[in-house]
Design a protein that fits this description.
Layout (H helix, E strand, L loop, with lengths): L2 H16 L5 H12 L12 H7 L7 H18 L6 H19 L27 H16 L4 H34 L9 E5 L6 E8 L2 E8 L10 E4 L10 H10 L3 E6 L2 E6 L11 E7 L5 E8 L9 H9 L21
Antiparallel strand pairs: 1-2, 2-3, 3-4, 5-6, 6-7, 7-8
Helix pairs in contact: 1-2, 1-5, 1-6, 1-7, 2-5, 4-5, 6-7
């Protein structure tokens, strides 16, 4: 999730755990702890693909954060808060830290909660990385806690309750979409194929679905406000890797994305794209991984990340109308030169 949401969550957790001891300093400390795990973004792992797949790694691991919280609590008690019970400091610091990766795990990006064990990143995909419906009910009580200090802990607890209920709702919405997709592909060749679904930007009402199908994939949008349960699928070229075996970086990327990648030749470049993030023909994570010589021979190259460019101005109002159930405008969200509508 975004830094504002993480800071608000950390502050709310700290305020609720502190109880009568809650002060503005405690809230600020919780906000700092809530954003601390994301400092790993400052690390350079040598190439853009490694930077992507290793983000939310060790700094988001429960096996790192919990021992770190215990050590930090002991130091905090000795130096800063000598009158605090140690258990309360451990709870405040530990919960402020681990709620960060737990919240991240609700997004599509993936969070390595169990690093260093070889377990796939946890990515529930029920939340977009920025969602005002989650952040505002959490942020407003936290800001109010700075003013009404006598009620600070209760305000923080109220914000946590509302935001947590929204997380529960996102899981309910995800389940509803899974049922709808299963009904749509039942009896077709897409039944049983790998499916990815995630909410579109800033909401949990309009969902994007991607289904892998060999050298192509099918993409569709579905809103909880649709009157017609049928999904208008758009088949797109997925391509394939031109070498006999994938290099380690591609193996890492496919593991990270659970296979939801595409391969496209752009001039003399082979572009590998993470299909989970973005929509239709707009994807923020695309990498050049190979180049083709004049005689048509492919050769691996040092990965470089492509600039996705600006979002088309028509996209935002079209997304809003689509969220409200306007199923006829699906084509507005897709470049007609790159994809078309069809039945699976």
């Amino acid at each position: 999730m975004d830094s504002i949401s993480q800071a608000a969550l950390g502050a709310a957790v700290a305020g609720a755990v502190a109880g009568r001891r809650c002060t503005p300093k405690v809230l600020l400390a919780g906000a700092a702890l809530g954003t601390l795990p994301d400092l790993d973004v400052l690390l350079d792992y040598g190439d853009p693909i490694s930077n992507m797949v290793k983000h939310r790694g060790f700094s988001h691991s429960l096996f790192v954060l919990l021992p770190f919280a215990a050590v930090l609590a002991v130091l905090w008690k000795r130096v800063v808060a000598k009158d605090w019970p140690l258990w309360q400091l451990m709870a405040l610091i530990g919960l402020s830290l681990i709620t960060h990766p737990l919240l991240d795990s609700f997004t599509s990006y993936g969070t390595q909660l169990f690093w260093p064990f070889a377990v796939p990143p946890v990515a529930i995909s029920s939340m977009f990385i920025i969602d005002p419906a989650y952040t505002i009910p959490l942020l407003v009580p936290v800001l109010a806690a700075f003013i009404w200090r006598s009620r600070a802990a209760k305000l923080c607890a109220a914000g946590l309750t509302i935001s947590s209920l929204y997380l529960v709702w996102s899981l309910v919405a995800l389940g509803m979409m899974k049922d709808r997709v299963e009904e749509n592909v039942a009896g077709t060749h897409l039944e049983g194929q790998p499916v990815f679904m995630a909410p579109s930007p800033l909401n949990t009402v309009l969902w994007r679905i991607v289904i892998l199908d060999g050298d192509k994939y099918w993409e569709g949008l579905a809103s909880l406000m649709d009157e017609d349960p049928a999904i208008d699928w758009m088949p797109m070229v997925r391509g394939e890797w031109p070498f006999p075996s994938p290099p380690p970086l591609l193996i890492d990327l496919e593991r990270f994305t659970k296979g939801f990648v595409s391969f496209e030749q752009q001039n003399d470049d082979l572009v590998v794209t993470d299909l989970r993030l973005g929509m239709a023909t707009y994807h923020p994570f695309s990498f050049v991984m190979a180049m083709q010589s004049e005689n048509g021979v492919w050769a691996l190259t040092e990965p470089t990340q492509l600039d996705p460019g600006p979002v088309l101005p028509r996209t935002i109002p079209a997304l809003w109308l689509r969220l409200l159930g306007a199923q006829h405008i699906d084509a507005m969200l897709c470049n007609e030169n790159d994809c078309f509508r069809d039945e699976p």
